[in-house]
Design goal:
This protein is mainly β. The protein is 0% helix and 49% strand. The relative contact order is 0.33.
Length: 114
């Protein structure tokens, strides 16, 4: 069974940067489309970014374009989310996702203070 383990979240100040990681096991990582989603308590989980199996195509939600970068290392079975110029509205639990399936890890909390 596939496992998704997110890490890297912490408390930062507005304008700072953070890199999230998601380690994947139990499946052929290099065949997966990988994504990042986020959720604020009381709100729906929302799409953040996605990357195709070979990293050739990426797509971002408008609110993070130009600030966040999704990448992957197929040799390490890991997908990353580099987050720059963080804003308080980026505060959320961040989850990685594979193939847009409704399957989630525990997530990692990012808190951005103003």
């Amino acid at each position: 069974q596939i496992q998704l383990v997110e890490s890297g979240g912490r408390l930062v100040q507005a304008g700072e940067s953070l890199r999230l990681s998601c380690a994947v096991s139990g499946y052929t990582f290099s065949s997966l489309t990988m994504g990042w989603f986020r959720q604020v308590p009381g709100k729906n989980r929302e799409f953040v970014a996605v990357i195709t199996w070979n990293g050739g195509t990426t797509y971002y939600t408008d609110s993070v374009k130009g600030r966040f970068t999704i990448s992957r290392d197929n040799a390490k079975n890991t997908v990353y989310l580099q987050m720059n110029s963080l804003k308080p509205e980026d505060t959320a639990v961040y989850y990685c996702n594979y193939n847009y399936r409704n399957y989630w890890g525990k997530g990692t909390l990012v808190t951005v203070s103003s």
